[in-house]
Amino acid sequence: MRNPSPSLIRPLGNWAAILLLFFTLLGTGWAAEQGTPVYEGHPQFSHFPKPLSLYEHVEGAGAWQMIKERAAQDPFNVAATIIFVLAVIHTFVAGIFREWAHDLEKRHLEKHGDDTERVSFWAVTLHFFGEVEAVFGLWIIALAGTALFFHGWADLRNYLGHDVNFTEPLFVIVIMAIAASRPVVKFAEACIGRVAALGRSTPAAWWLAILTVAPLMGSLITEPAAMTLAALLLSRRLYALVPSRMLAYGTLGLLFVNISVGGTLTHFAAPPILMVAAPWKWDTAIVFGNIGWKMVVAIAINNAAYFLVFRKELKSLASAGARAKADDRVEEPVPREVTAVHLAFLAWTVFTNHYPALFVGGFLFFLGFVEATRHHQSPVSLRSPLLVGFFLGALIVHGRCQSWWIEPLLTSADLPEWGLLLGAAVLTMFNDNAAITYLAAQAPGLGDFAKYAVVAGAVAAGGMTVIANAPNPAGQSLLGHHFAGNIQPGKLALAALLPTVVCIFILLILRSPLMG
Description:
mainly alpha
């Protein structure tokens, strides 16, 4: 399948920017009147979703009974979940819309020739429906209509304007843009290149070095930044050499899993751990001592296993890799001073990741510095960061309306701890893993083993789907053009299945303090 023509792609960045700006303005207080909290004791300004503690509950009721009761008490819950399920299904059939868009674009070109200034409205629209990063945002229209029907404009306005926090999407936009800058990429490439040099800098050595070092770097520079750097380096060092479909998907699945578990060496880098660190008083020592060191073992095992499977093909790519290495020598080096300033901006963004006014302000200064040193820079591309930010923002909007059924499953007394780990892993495949752990943090009375099980299952399954972990859309956006017609969710899940099983197995069998 051919890639969409430039005339079809150009408007998509503008669409994403406009839509993201709309939700960002809402999330930063654009709504005219905030009013007062609608539920006593809960800092919530809209009537939906209803706080979990306010649902009537029959003592001893099982998870399924609780879900049925909550559905009966607020029918909006069912409607919001149906819309969410349809959005998930849409991500699996997005390729159909891209096919339609290509057909319309072909007819448009046949009719108008090479006049690239004339754009096919319906081709661009259908292609937007085929962008996985845009899917959940499009389904917000249906969710908004449903909220208007059940609750009215004031509640919808307050939900989007005050109850939903868009800090994480804004952070991902900024960190992706900075991490993808030429000085940062060259610096990361030089660091990882030292590891690859131990294997004579062959494509196989680069493959192994990137998939090992970059995920572990995520524990310091955050997972979205690590995903950006790893995806850009893999694009250049592996995917540019045109690997087989099996190696392409195998690498992608392994990357997503490794990034998800690689941020567990600290308590501030992985979104699902960040959600529970404060309420459960987990610091870096607790996280590393119970999960982090196990995931280092898992990364080593998974990388070794996939390397053995693909070693022959990786070796066959050596000649193409030599040509790519020759091309590297003609690139002009970036001055150390410029690289140092970029790393300082990256560190500032990570340090202030909970304060949009600070990291967005720093980003504006970063753009000014890039302009002042543009002879050492590549153009700053915001299309991928904006689409990824739009995806995450929309997922947050939908995700908050799914707590009514996820929470009973996570806190069910019918599940043993190991079953809770597997349950959290399954739920993560269909929702953001940070949302899963956030809901667990709201449940009172969870024991240490139960807390460990929820977080372990959430991080282990973070590579199975594009919606399972916040950095995954960044990887898809940066690497999608290497896959004909974009990345297929089913093949991604199959590629990530074995590494996920290995992570879960290690988390279950290797003992640590929280397991008792």
